[in-house]
Amino acid sequence: MGGLDFSRRSSAAESCFVVVIALSLLLVTQVRAQNIGVGFYDQSCPRAESIVTETVREFNSRDATVPAALLRLLFHDCFVEGCDGSLLLDPSPENPDVEKAASPNLTVRGYDVIDAAKARLEVECPQTVSCADIVALAARDSAVLAGLNFQGLPLTMATGRWDGRVSSRNAAEAALPSSKSNVQQLTAQFSNKGLSQDEMVTLSGAHSIGVAHCSNFMDRLYDFPGSPNGVDPTLDPDYAAELQAKCPRGNPNPNTVVNMDPQTPFVIDNNFYSNGFAGKVLFSSDMALFNDFETQFTSDLNVVNGITWNQKFGNALAQMAAIDIKDDFDGEVRLNCRRIN
Ligand code: HEM
């Protein structure tokens, strides 16, 4: 009996110990999580944010497609291993299968902008500003440059992220949504990252800028199952004809790209939603937002109220930029964004 009592006492003590450890971990996580905040570099590198802004502006003045590239870069970084710059890591002999090599990432652009900002920041304040923060700030600046109207208020972006040391091609293949996903799959993938369905629909409005390769929507233009003329019946017929002219059967030039917003391809706005209801969005995943009962209503509200959408987009961008932040415990401030230290 005594033995039994002892084991009960010991298991009670063990449970107590586990609870204490769990609580302290929770506390530590919370305290660490507080390290991210607006103006993190105000003391350590006061010009950090303006250096990123100047760099993004400079690249944008030479190539107006840069903001689109940088917004997508943040999304693809944050959805895999959190917002930790893991997407920036080049393959190495130790790790040839990095995120960058995953198929959805093969068309990600904008690494040169991040490298340029990092080089300037290393001169200004060595070993201080993380690559993950540069990616987040550059995306914020891109939204502003593309005309996001945050009701005249500055679009703030918290900083204080650390750079990760892990980058996996398989993890990227699994976490990034495909242009063929349905609403349930998209909702689940965003929910896995702590983002709501509303935020998913809101952030999809980023597809009002930038370009897409024909391969991502060719299946809607030719031999579409069950369609008498082979075209996805949810596509506007005139738009489908335009797309067929740009992306001929067989995709002879795999580098051909098409603007995602036919009217204002460089302005981030709620056109994405009116385009969607008019059958003028490129991907089945985007089209699904307008045909699925669950997301139709939110999409409709975003058409009607562009001001609210702008605000929601700014807030959702900040939420996305806070996914699984690393700290000094599991991260570092890289010297070169393409290599771990
Ligand atoms: C909802 C799920 C999403 C899917 C399935 C998706 C898929 C895609 C695909 C297939 C492309 C075309 C890439 C190419 O052919 O070069 C693309 C481009 C783009 N995506 Fe998304 N995306 C999603 C969400 C987002 C989010 C949340 C953002 C940012 C907030 C975003 C921003 C962009 C931008 C700006 C481009 C244009 C990039 C460029 O011009 O290089 N996307 N997306």
From TrEMBL:
Residue positions binding Ca(2+) 1: 77, 80, 82, 84, 86, 99
Amino acids binding Ca(2+) 2: 261, 264, 269
Cofactor binding summary note: Binds 1 heme b (iron(II)-protoporphyrin IX) group per subunit. Binds 2 calcium ions per subunit.
Plant heme peroxidase family profile domain boundaries: 35-341
Subcellular location: Secreted
GO biological process: hydrogen peroxide catabolic process; response to oxidative stress; response to stress
Disulfide partners: 45-125, 78-83, 131-337, 214-247
Main function: Removal of H(2)O(2), oxidation of toxic reductants, biosynthesis and degradation of lignin, suberization, auxin catabolism, response to environmental stresses such as wounding, pathogen attack and oxidative stress. These functions might be dependent on each isozyme/isoform in each plant tissue.
Family per record: Belongs to the peroxidase family. Ascorbate peroxidase subfamily.
PANTHER family tied to this protein: PEROXIDASE, PTHR31517
Protein name: Peroxidase
